[in-house]
Amino acid sequence: MTTSAANGLSEIERQRQANIAEQNALLKELQLGQSGSFANVGTPKASSANKSKKKAPPKRVKEEDSPAPRRQSSRLQGLSADSEVAKRKADDHYEAAKEAERAKRVRRTGSFNQNDMFIAGQKLSGDSLIGTDVIVKGVAEPYIRTFGDDDIEKTTDKELKALREEMNGLELWDKWDPQRIKITPERVYTMTFHPSEAKPLIFAGDKMGHLGILDASQDKVETKTEDEDEDQEDPDPELTTLKIHTRTISSMMVNPSKPMTLYTASYDSSIRELDLEKLVSLETYGPESTNIDEAISAIDMAPTDPNVLYWTTLNGGFGSYDVRTSKDTASSWQLSEKKIGGFTICPSSPNYFSTASLDRFLRVWDIRKLSRKEPVPVAEHESRLSVSHAAFNAAGQIATSSYDDTLKIYDLGAKGLSSWSKGHTLDDADFRPDTVVRHNCQTGRWVTILRPQWQLNPQSHIQKFCIGNMNRFVDVYSAGGDQLAQLGGDGITAVPAVAVFHRSKNWVAGGTASGKLCLWM
Question: Tell me, what's a Pfam family for it (predicted)?
Fold first, then answer.
């Protein structure tokens, strides 16, 4: 009798137990290994030929076009036919929603009438908007003033002191609390006043393509009766909100020679004109295809020519177009390899314009000497960090804001700008800021970039511009860098980052990231 038989086990049973013991030992060995998986079990060693092959780089997919998770076989997932039908319906719904979202951002090229643009519940009364009368750096400390009455009292220059007193005498529009003047649904990106002096009419564009309009000459409408509670809140101001672009409205203007037309530019690659009497919006300029992305960063027009539009793009381009001709006659130049954030035409010498770009340069150009192959600027100056805006005034001075926390002023008028001949250039040594002012420009992600804006036709010979202050004020400076005012008031709970002057009246407006308006008059 064999040993196995003596132990009461057959040869087959003994072999089975031996196999089990061997498998358990192998499992323990695998669990203690470094790989922690069965990925390498049974895999032959790679040959030298395989080792020499480079691994293919992963395919780059745009974030907005990222595919949905890969579908698996219903059989592998254990799904019934009914579940497959439901999944197909879900996939169809997802694709439809994705296409609808994409369609929202595509430029609309047609004409809009009032019913196409009005946002429900926000419309000015009446048939027409115009009618017939036509130095802090670093972290901001909210509400901490850096300029006040003491600075005015110390002023020895009589004319400067008088202007400081006048500008600091501007008062916040008190008919409504600023928290109740929501001029746009989303963050304000750009604003302008209508040039009319008859009444303050303010336009604001936001990040989603809405245009908000406020007539600040309106009075409160008394709706209370004797039986109503005295504490009942007054109605909000009358506003008009129009949806005229599919993406951010980046710039807007009213040419004084064409006061019934508001031009708006957008990241949706289009420039539109809004008839302020008929409230009809038409596309003035746009690429030949809606699939072409040429996001427009700024527009401007020479004050003496209401027919030629000029613009810059986020791709570093510059363009011009005569609205009396067909769109295919538009001209374009590549002036920068990086984004041009802002530009302006010199009002008194419209052959010259300035650009501010992400490559840290302020540049001045002569429209008459632009070459498409290799455009050469009249002058350029490099800052330590990117330049946000370059604003020309009628005296030939340029004010810039930069992420190096400075406001720089370049006086080209004093260098004979008005008498320059075609082809005139300046050396780097001759083109440096005449004045540098410390100013906190660290807006972060949620606040619109701070940009200086001149009063184009000031009532005194002292040129002045305004710019938002991260401490929740609007600062006013002279061309010599002297601070003239720091505008604030009760009810301002956010940074009025987008600040603009009326072209001739001492009216200043500021727009916030929540779409609220602050107005000083």
Answer: WD40
Q: What are phi and psi of 197, to 5 degrees?
A: -95, -5
Distance CA 513, CA 208 (A): 12
Query: Would residue 75 count as lying in a domain?
Result: no
Backbone angles phi, psi at 387, to 5 degrees: -100, 130
User: Residue 6 falls within a domain, yes or no?
Assistant: no
Question: What is the span of the domain harbouring residue 394?
Answer: 135-219+236-520
Q: Is residue 103 part of a domain?
A: no
Please list the alpha-helical segments (H only) found in 256-367: none
270 is written with which tokens? Answer: 């289009």
Helices (H), ranges, 238-329 = none
Q: How many CB atoms lie within 10 A of CB 371?
A: 8
For 168, the token pair is 């600091």
* Residue 363 CB contacts under 8 Å (≥ 6 apart), including other chains: 335, 336, 354, 355, 357, 377, 379, 380
Per DSSP, 122 falls in state B
Nearest-angstrom CA–CA distance, 17 and 22: 9
Query: Which pair of structure tokens corresponds to residue 207?
Result: 């990040």
Number of domains in the chain: 1
Q: How far apart (Å, rounded) are the C-alpha atoms in residues 330 and 291?
A: 18
The CA-CA-CA angle for residues 419, 402, 210, to 5°, reads 95
Q: What is the pLDDT of residues 66-94, one digit of tens each?
A: 444 555 555 555 555 556 666 777 777 77
Cβ-contact 437, 415 below 8 angstroms: no
CATH assignment at residue 472: 2.130.10.10
46 versus 355: the higher-pLDDT residue is 355
| pTM given for the model | 0.76
